[in-house]
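Database export, one record per block. Field names are fixed; values are copied verbatim from the stored entry.
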Amino acid sequence: MRIVLRGRLKKRLHREVAALQDEVADAVYAVENNAVLHDGTSIWRCYSGNRFSEDLDFYAPSPHFTKAFAQKISEHGLTLSKLKQTNNLVFSKITDGNTEVRAEFNFSTAKKGVPAEYERIDGSTMTVFTLTPEELFLEKISAYYNRRLIRDAYDVFFLSSKITPSSQLKAAATEFTARAQPPLDEENLKTIIYAGAIPSFRQITAALQRWQQ
């Protein structure tokens, strides 16, 4: 029997953030049905990941829902402590008075998500839109090039077990293992993996090389 997410998270802060993420995700889909969850939290919640992710990242068709989003956050008894809009993004911070969650909405790129079941902290699920594992695999490779964080490399490794190697994915993985420099924060992986072994960057790239074959 699968233990509910609350029971799998070892750190109190992670449990509190996860619970607040659920509230924020509820508010998002109440006002923008076409939002597409992506990045680390989508892997964790929609594809049975075992890496804690603190932010909520969405693709959204436009920024016009932000007023309704702020109202919905208030209805949930939460506070929108920051809301900043640029030409391409809406960046927000939401707090319940003790814990804070960041939610970012990117409306510069149109994305059509696929329906997936998002696992809540209490073990229940809700339907959201997210990217396919293949799309997330490519997105995470790109993210690693941009910021060289170990969590992105780990996500690439994790997603490789969810997908079949196509010529495009093999080419991306081949380039990644040849081009990627070591992460700037490898020691941080042990603080966000809450189940299972913690591979080194060298082990991750070796596993991806085997996956390509």
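Remark 1: The chain has a mean pLDDT of 96.
Remark 2: Strands lie at 36-38, 55-59, 79-85, 89-95, 100-106, 114-119, 125-130.
End of record.
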